[in-house]
């Protein structure tokens, strides 16, 4: 039986959440420490723990069929590869930053300047688009130190919390792109393995949909149900069950997490009581 080979970051910011999302879709992996390859116990899948920067080429060559990878790495090294699903974690941005004392305010102010980066293709693409000629210094790590040691006038690197920039006395002047973890596939994937990816994608979508929503249960007097039902969108319409207490009902519904607090406020004002909110593991539509 065919097995899907999936690459996951060996160590670094994506590793833990990548393993967590595989677990959330019901795939159990025996994860021995320092292993470079592991098999799933209950799914036709082998996980390869690889270095981030190597993954696009492995995908391109068909050494692995799929990967969980930062979109920023794909844009830099694998712009030709296919993104199947955005995974909503490891969100960051690729930004240009300069020392706090610098007068540079945007990309346009970097004409003739030196930019240190691990993302040369990305930076060049944006510089070309803006018609700016700058000199790139390619560094593979600790990019933010470059201005302090006189190596560059600006840096381009990923920013997540912003703490690395802050600690190195840098300010962000331009966001080139926003990124998150994605599931990408190889152009050489076989039909059998594509069918496995389709299964994984279906499961991922139900987990991601669940994460976007919350399950809400509340009690309300029957004479206030009409108003409350209008506030609760639900997947179809809310479930209403009678309570043992005469004249009262319990309502169950699903609320998008972005509207959540506004909806709760409105429910309270309109007579809802005993509101319970639960996370949703999966939502299959
Ligand atoms: C990245 C990046 C920055 C830092 C930004 O390094 O190179 O240095 O994170 O994150 P922050 O805004 O939350 O401070 P990472 O720790 O991923 O290791 P790397 O040097 O191997 O890229």
UniProtKB/TrEMBL annotation:
Domain of life: Bacteria
EC class name: transferase
EC number: 2.4.2.17
Alphabetical list of NCBIfam families matching this protein: hisG, HisG_C-term
Pfam families: HisG (PF01634), HisG_C (PF08029)
Cofactor(s) demanded: Mg(2+)
Any one Gene Ontology cellular component term annotated for this protein: cytoplasm
Keyword Lipid metabolism part of the UniProt annotation: no
PANTHER family noted in UniProt: ATP PHOSPHORIBOSYLTRANSFERASE, ATP PHOSPHORIBOSYLTRANSFERASE ATP-PRTASE
Function: Catalyzes the condensation of ATP and 5-phosphoribose 1-diphosphate to form N'-(5'-phosphoribosyl)-ATP (PR-ATP). Has a crucial role in the pathway because the rate of histidine biosynthesis seems to be controlled primarily by regulation of HisG enzymatic activity.
Reactions that this protein is recorded to catalyse: 1-(5-phospho-beta-D-ribosyl)-ATP + diphosphate = 5-phospho-alpha-D-ribose 1-diphosphate + ATP
GO terms under biological process: L-histidine biosynthetic process
Pathway(s): Amino-acid biosynthesis; L-histidine biosynthesis; L-histidine from 5-phospho-alpha-D-ribose 1-diphosphate: step 1/9
Compartments reported by the entry: Cytoplasm
Documented activity regulation: Feedback inhibited by histidine.
Xref: InterPro entries: ATP-PRT_HisG_long, ATP_PRibTrfase_cat, ATP_PRibTrfase_CS, ATP_PRibTrfase_HisG, HisG_C, N-reg_PII-like_a/b, N-reg_PII/ATP_PRibTrfase_C
Keywords assigned by UniProt, alphabetized: Amino-acid biosynthesis, ATP-binding, Cytoplasm, Glycosyltransferase, Histidine biosynthesis, Magnesium, Metal-binding, Nucleotide-binding, Transferase
Main location: cytoplasm
Domain ATP phosphoribosyltransferase catalytic intervals: 51-205
Example GO molecular function: magnesium ion binding
Source organism of the structure: Winogradskyella jejuensis
Designated name of the protein: ATP phosphoribosyltransferase
Family: Belongs to the ATP phosphoribosyltransferase family. Long subfamily.
Residues in Histidine biosynthesis HisG C-terminal domain copies: 211-282
């Amino acid at each position: 039986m065919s097995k899907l080979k999936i690459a996951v970051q060996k160590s670094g910011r994506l590793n833990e959440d990548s393993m967590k999302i595989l677990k959330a879709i019901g795939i159990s992996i025996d994860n021995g420490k320092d292993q470079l390859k592991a098999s799933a116990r209950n799914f036709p899948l082998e996980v390869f723990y690889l270095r981030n920067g190597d993954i696009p080429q492995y995908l391109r060559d068909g050494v692995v069929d799929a990967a969980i990878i930062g979109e920023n790495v794909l844009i830099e090294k694998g712009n030709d590869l296919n993104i199947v699903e955005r995974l909503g974690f490891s969100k960051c941005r690729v930004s240009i930053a300069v020392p706090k004392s610098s007068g540079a305010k945007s990309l346009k102010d970097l004409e003739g300047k030196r930019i240190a980066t691990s993302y040369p293709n990305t930076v060049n693409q944006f510089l070309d688009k803006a018609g700016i000629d700058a000199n790139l210094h390619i560094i593979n790590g600790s990019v933010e130190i470059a201005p302090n040691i006189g190596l560059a006038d600006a840096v381009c690197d990923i920013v997540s919390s912003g703490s690395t920039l802050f600690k190195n006395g840098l300010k962000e002047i331009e966001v080139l792109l926003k990124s998150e973890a994605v599931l990408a596939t190889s152009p050489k994937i076989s039909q059998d393995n594509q069918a496995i990816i389709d299964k994984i994608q279906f499961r991922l979508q139900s987990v991601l949909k669940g994460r976007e929503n919350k399950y809400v249960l509340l009690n309300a007097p029957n004479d206030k149900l009409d108003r409350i039902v209008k506030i609760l969108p639900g997947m179809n319409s809310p479930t209403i069950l009678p309570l043992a207490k005469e004249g009262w009902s319990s309502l169950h519904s699903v609320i998008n997490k972005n509207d959540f607090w506004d909806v709760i406020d409105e429910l309270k004002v309109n007579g809802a009581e005993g509101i319970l909110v639960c996370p949703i593991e999966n939502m299959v539509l």
